[in-house]
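Sample pair:
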Amino acid sequence: MITYSKTETQKLAQSLGEKLQKGCVLCLSGELGAGKTTFTQGLAKGLDIHQNVNSPTFVMMKEYEGRLTLIHIDAYRLEGISQDLGFEDYFDDEHVCVIEWSEFVQDYLPDDAFYITINRLDENVREIILNLNQELEAQLC
């Protein structure tokens, strides 16, 4: 999918958030500035979260309450770290987890995780590649 503004990226993510159920783990990848946090902000709106959502780069994890509890993890600073930080405790039937830079914690991710790649094509243009289950993909397209 192609979005042409931050607002369009957030609306796409919001639509996905409206359809998510407890237990979903979404793995986001893309270069710095691609729009991973922007996508997560839209997702949070779809989960009826009214708090300001920003990148947890320095704290690594933030929790937000809404229709479902969102666990927002930024694994950017975890590249090459092999110790268990306990993030997988949130990969359960009670939370929705979004992991930015998920490639750095690949060994801990559940087998049924969804993968979303955001490619920056231009200043405002993003290519968003969704690797979800067929039911969710059909609802978004």
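The chain has one domain: 2-140.
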